[in-house]
Write a structure and sequence with these properties.
Layout: E1 3-6, E2 13-14, E3 25-27, E4 32-37, E5 66-72, E6 80-90, E7 93-98, H1 104-109, E8 117-124, E9 129-132, E10 137-139, E11 143-148, E12 167-169, E13 180-184, E14 192-198, E15 212-213, E16 215-224, E17 233-236, E18 239-246, H2 249-268, H3 272-279, E19 283-289, E20 295-302
Parallel strand pairs: 1-4, 3-5
Antiparallel strand pairs: 2-5, 4-16, 5-14, 6-13, 6-16, 7-8, 8-9, 9-10, 11-12, 11-14, 13-17, 14-15, 17-18, 18-20, 19-20
Helix pairs in contact: 2-3
């Protein structure tokens, strides 16, 4: 299988999803891609002080700065794109900002009127740690916040909301290297875009940003005709993961759980009620993110939690 390199240039980045946008790279199923993406803001240089706004790849950014779209030969609605993350390596610096938006959460916390607070991070990728300008050190667990395809509708679509078909701004901390993510194909050739690198993030992404950073991602793209789960799902190092997305957190929770129960029925030959009973002591429901207007919930069935025989 072929191996392709793709980096961010003015001709290979986008800040919207669109089925009309021509691909910047075309690959075959089973090919490996090595994609470099800038941070969500598309900064071309490191911030020198909190709140610094370095030059950016896109001067009037409308969404995330993403690399792509990448066409996959033979992808069509009705198939599923699998993305197997072989390695995900951040650049040596990143940033976090809080209290920069006026939304229900920041109003609830009393920080909607600012001032915002920035953290600047030094990322020691070889040792797997990041240290901020306040002296705090965290363990890195890098992943891409955005991996997705455009809706099958004309025009340009924002990158901020995650979508139940095609993915996008999923922001799930479980999708680290070693994960295979499965995305229902929305448009011919898939036209997948990647970016929004996070060196580390807690469940929820409560400030609206994680440790935002540029990233180099090696992944294998393939097509699946008959997946065990109809919607977005993943097999990650931590376990099997299903997702729900909605403006209503209860709906997102129900969708994530329903998908996991469907998967457990297939795995273990259970009725739906039996799968729900088994899920109660074994499945974790986690708030994926509360930062993107459309909330995310993921269900996690850890690999070691359920044994048979």
């Amino acid at each position: 299988m072929a191996r392709h390199q793709l980096g961010p240039t003015p001709d290979t980045v986008t800040d919207v999803f669109s089925r009309e946008r021509p691909p910047v790279l075309t690959v075959s199923p089973g090919d490996t891609i090595v994609v470099r993406s800038l941070d969500a803001s598309g900064y071309l240089a490191r911030q020198q002080h909190p709140g610094d706004r370095p030059p950016a790849m896109i001067s009037s950014l409308r969404g995330h700065c993403l690399t792509g779209p990448i066409a996959v030969r033979g992808a069509r609605p009705g198939t599923v794109l699998s993305v197997r993350f072989e390695s995900i390596r951040p650049d040596p610096w990143g940033w976090t900002v809080a209290a920069i938006l006026d939304n229900p959460l920041t109003r609830r916390l009393g920080v909607a009127e600012g001032p915002p607070w920035w953290l600047l991070w030094d990322l020691d990728v070889d040792n797997g740690t990041g240290t901020n300008d306040l002296g705090h050190t965290v363990t890195l667990a890098p992943f891409l916040g955005v991996v997705g395809m455009p809706p099958d509708e004309p025009g340009e679509h924002p990158t901020k909301p995650p979508r139940a078909r095609g993915g996008g701004n999923i922001d799930c901390r479980e999708l680290v290297a070693g994960t295979t993510l499965y995305l229902p194909v929305t448009v011919p050739d898939a036209l997948v875009c990647m970016g929004d690198g996070h060196a580390a993030q807690g469940d929820g992404e409560v400030a609206g940003t994680a440790i935002e950073c540029s990233m180099t991602t090696e992944a294998v793209l393939d097509l699946v005709a008959d997946p065990p789960v109809p919607g977005i799902h993943a097999v990650a190092p931590a376990g099997r993961v299903t997702f729900g997305f909605s403006r209503d957190l209860n709906v997102a929770m129900g969708d994530a759980l329903d998908a996991m129960i469907t998967w457990m029925q297939s795995l273990y030959g259970l009725s739906k009620a039996a799968a729900l009973a088994v899920a109660s002591p074994t499945v974790d429901l986690r708030v994926t993110q509360v930062a993107n207007d459309v909330w995310g919930v993921h269900a996690l069935l850890r690999h070691e939690v359920l044994r048979t025989g």
